[in-house]
């Protein structure tokens, strides 16, 4: 049963209005919802320019959003968590740690979207790469993901096989990648999520996909649940789909100690 959705977005990054996301979570029958907007912390000018152009500036607006959450959540039965989804960048780890310590979110979601300055969700960026070059990108993705887990900065690791969502990179993940990631998570306090971000769309799978999910379960790794919803309509549909998926798997998700 889905009681908590720890991964949604609001208009403080690329999601729907804050009040709409919270009301949708109430309608879905959730006990708690996490507003985990995107956040980029880096000195890299290109990445900072990308952040500014997308409006992913939670590092500048999180206090304002916190006040908004408090106002909208007041008097409601649902718990609303003040969270963040941060793009993990190994070169910026010290800066990210300092920001998370200062901001004191309820919890932090870590994700890997960038590998060597390339967004692994942008299929067109990899179509002209050779097979060997694509393999190297996927290798680097899992290397960075393990670093994210080992950093200890994050409570949740988001969509841990994101590269499978990208047609040009799909199929290059190996059992060795899965075993290494599973071992890191088994030794860490960081928990991966079962993520519905593209399960009802073009990808058609939940994260983690079946082979990685089996490997993680074999290592005794537990999961939280994240719809990765960016609109109120998505949230309700994805929570329903997650309910069915968890029933099929026989998985009871864990909860964060907040």
TrEMBL record:
<protein>
    <recommendedName>
        <fullName>histidinol-phosphatase</fullName>
        <ecNumber>3.1.3.15</ecNumber>
    </recommendedName>
</protein>
<dbReference type="Pfam" id="PF02811">
    <property type="entry name" value="PHP"/>
</dbReference>
<dbReference type="InterPro" id="IPR016195">
    <property type="entry name" value="Pol/histidinol_Pase-like"/>
</dbReference>
<comment type="similarity">
    <text>Belongs to the PHP hydrolase family. HisK subfamily.</text>
</comment>
<keyword id="KW-0028">Amino-acid biosynthesis</keyword>
<feature type="domain" description="Polymerase/histidinol phosphatase N-terminal">
    <location>
        <begin position="4"/>
        <end position="90"/>
    </location>
</feature>
<keyword id="KW-0378">Hydrolase</keyword>
<dbReference type="InterPro" id="IPR004013">
    <property type="entry name" value="PHP_dom"/>
</dbReference>
<keyword id="KW-0368">Histidine biosynthesis</keyword>
<dbReference type="InterPro" id="IPR010140">
    <property type="entry name" value="Histidinol_P_phosphatase_HisJ"/>
</dbReference>
<dbReference type="GO" id="GO:0004401">
    <property type="term" value="F:histidinol-phosphatase activity"/>
</dbReference>
<dbReference type="GO" id="GO:0000105">
    <property type="term" value="P:L-histidine biosynthetic process"/>
</dbReference>
<comment type="pathway">
    <text>Amino-acid biosynthesis; L-histidine biosynthesis; L-histidine from 5-phospho-alpha-D-ribose 1-diphosphate: step 8/9.</text>
</comment>
<dbReference type="GO" id="GO:0005737">
    <property type="term" value="C:cytoplasm"/>
</dbReference>
<dbReference type="InterPro" id="IPR003141">
    <property type="entry name" value="Pol/His_phosphatase_N"/>
</dbReference>
